[in-house]
């Protein structure tokens, strides 16, 4: 009937179905499903958005054996938290064809300037390796820098080794203690 939404429409074809619009096309409903036996493609000459009303409890789930995103700029933001987990290896890299390029990868918590808030923890169950052309570690508050190892007092399992191919310089404005 014209006053109710009780009817339904079924559209089927033995071959292709092509829906086009010169202006805008909208597919809406309380539940919308696109099912494909083969590959499915969504293309846009303008912007493409996957969104869920913020007031609802829904979300956007992408489930696939492999997900690839190739874009000029990628931004990932969360108003509560952002979590990235992997059962296998996880790699974050930034590269460019020119070695002379000045590239920076920044891990920051809190404001960009020196701040009392924010903690970055690097944890590894077995081993943590870090290498760079040069390394600067600067502590900006009174806590300073602590290098600590743990182990039993009777063994060398908690020893700290410091080696340099050139000079080693230890200086202190106040007192220096080796014991």
Which keywords apply here?
0% strand, 179 residues, 0% helix
Mean pLDDT: 79
Largest sheet: none
Query: What is the strand tally?
Result: 0
Helix content: under 10%
Look at the helices and sheets and give the structural class: little secondary structure
Unreliable residue runs = none
**First-last Cα distance:** 92 Å
Radius of gyration: 28 Å
Total of DSSP H or I helical runs spanning 4+ residues: 0
Strand content: under 5%
From the spread of the alpha carbons, the general shape counts as elongated
Summarize the structure.
By secondary structure, the protein is largely without helices or strands.
Question: How would you explain this protein's 3D organization?
Answer:
The protein is mostly loops and about 180 residues long. It is elongated, with a radius of gyration of 28 Å. The chain has no helices and no strands.
Layout of SSEs?
Blueprint: no helix or strand
